[in-house]
């Protein structure tokens, strides 16, 4: 149940908190590379002080309708941040990317995890992930980020997500990724309606049966907004409930915006789990 991320070993039978760090221009809009790096580092230090075990650095917005980013632009945004955090902070740097060049360069600069919402389906991604030698998170997605929420449909969402993830695990292992370097993610909100998302969360234990640690990301997502009827910035309590449920159901990592609050919620869930 242990996994090593660029020299840091974690017990994945416990639940760890991953803080989200966006390095898209819309998140630090006032320009300048130095200011962006500076702002990202300040945020990273806060996430670590709040108890994050991982920081997920992302330079490409997967929001439907978001502008596409060139490889060079993504490299320029992500690499300096990955390098600076890896050098300064005691945390696993995760790189949220589908781009092989970003995977390779980030791993060389100290990243400990590749988090690909496209499940290593881009040309060259399987080989880049395998060559990096670091763990990978393979996420389920139906369709493409731009259009995935238009009309998500499944005959049996749990079975189809399980089959997709199993196929991508086989592909990753075929390319040379070690089985014990693979994390799986059902991909909440990625080509799924509320009913699909709830069925997946209710059945998280069955995805554990695939034999890999699970990462889940529901923080502030619209599935929670639909349940509680609140705008994105009013979804902290709903996000904490989702993280708590995930931790109780055995998730190894919860990916969130609000690290400090989530660490407390997950601590309670883990204490209860251990008493049971
Ligand atoms: C627009 C759409 C903006 C989606 C932001 C998002 C996940 C992830 C994201 C996840 C893993 C968000 C998402 N979500 N990586 N990256 N799992 N592994 O709401 O659920 O943060 S981006």
From TrEMBL:
GO molecular function: dihydropteroate synthase activity; metal ion binding
Pfam families assigned: Pterin_bind
The UniProt record lists the keyword Metal-binding: yes
InterPro entries: DHP_synth-like, DHP_synth_dom, Dihydropteroate_synth-like_sf, Pterin-binding_dom
Domain Pterin-binding: from-to ranges: 15-267
Leader sequence residues: none
Any single Gene Ontology cellular-component annotation: cytosol
Catalytic activity line of the entry: (7,8-dihydropterin-6-yl)methyl diphosphate + 4-aminobenzoate = 7,8-dihydropteroate + diphosphate
CC cofactor: Mg(2+)
BP-aspect Gene Ontology terms: folic acid biosynthetic process; tetrahydrofolate biosynthetic process
Subunit structure: Homodimer.
Protein name according to UniProt: Dihydropteroate synthase
């Amino acid at each position: 149940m242990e996994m090593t991320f660029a020299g840091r070993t974690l017990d994945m039978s416990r639940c760890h908190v991953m803080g989200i760090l966006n390095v898209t221009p819309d998140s630090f809009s006032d320009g300048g590379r130095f200011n962006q790096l500076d702002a990202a580092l300040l945020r990273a230090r806060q996430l670590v002080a709040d108890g994050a075990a991982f920081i997920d650095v992302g330079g490409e917005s997967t929001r439907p309708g978001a502008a596409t980013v060139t490889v060079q632009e993504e490299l320029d945004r992500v690499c300096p941040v990955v390098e600076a955090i890896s050098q300064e902070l005691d945390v696993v740097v995760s790189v949220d990317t589908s781009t092989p060049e970003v995977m390779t360069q980030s791993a060389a600069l100290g990243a400990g995890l590749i988090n690909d919402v496209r499940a290593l389906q881009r040309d060259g991604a399987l080989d880049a992930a395998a060559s990096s030698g670091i763990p990978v998170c393979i996420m389920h997605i139906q369709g493409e980020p731009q259009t995935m929420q238009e009309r998500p449909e499944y005959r049996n969402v749990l079975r189809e997500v399980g089959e997709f993830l199993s196929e991508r695990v086989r592909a990753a292992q075929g390319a040379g990724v070690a089985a014990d370097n693979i994390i799986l993610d059902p991909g909440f909100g990625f080509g799924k309606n509320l009913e699909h998302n709830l069925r997946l969360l209710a059945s998280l234990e069955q995805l554990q049966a695939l034999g890999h640690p699970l990462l889940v990301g529901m923080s502030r997502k619209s599935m929670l907004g639909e349940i509680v009827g609140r705008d994105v910035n009013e979804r902290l309590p709903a996000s904490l409930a989702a993280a708590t449920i995930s931790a109780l159901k055995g998730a190894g990592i919860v990916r969130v915006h609000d690290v400090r609050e989530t660490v407390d919620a997950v601590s309670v869930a883990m204490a209860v789990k251990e008493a049971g």
